[in-house]
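Quick one, T. Sequence first:
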Amino acid sequence: MRLVQITDCHLLADPEGTSRKGTPLRQLHAIVDRAKAIRPDIVLVTGDIAQDETPAAYRHARRAFATLGCPWFWIPGNHDQPELMDECHPFHEDLDLGDWRVLLLNSRISGQPGGELGQDQLQRLAWQLEADERPTLIALHHPPLEVGSVWMDAIGLKDRDALWQTLAPYPQVRALFCGHIHQAFAAWQGLVAVYGCPSTSDQFLPRSHEFATDEASRPGLRVVDLRGKTLATWVERVDL
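Structure tokens:
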């Protein structure tokens, strides 16, 4: 079973619209082409699909992802409008991958750059884990731990301590995958791996005290291979 994570597309209604360092839609098409070449079974898009929160931006994304040749699923980021996303392509909370499962969480807080899951969603997460002991992956937009950038850590997941307390009794949780940070990232919280992913648009400079883009990095995606009960993952980047 091969998953691909794509994140932080920051698309605009104008297909030729530009970001700080490039053209988001053109860069997304390059990432989708790379994803198709590595033949995923499923694609997870972990938020910030749109920059301008327009229906047209989500339609651009849907048309691009429709060419993948496999099922794809998305969650909202802080720049997104969940109602427009759900109308364009419905949300899912629980993905059955046979020997594995994926739980998709919504960490968006309306009007704020930081994220929060909230008590109701954490309680539902505990119920989901209590009911199924299969190896589990969790996807959310905001990073569930500090990544070492002062400005980014200030707008991460506010209730990350509550999340880890919720997960503590459930050893089947193997890894969490996040967006938001626009960079490759890997760390451990106890026995649980946490992975970040490059953006399809601009890249952020790791371990910066203030906001800065990474001039040397390229857009990328994360590949996740599930073999039996083992997980292997790596990042691939594209040249533009």
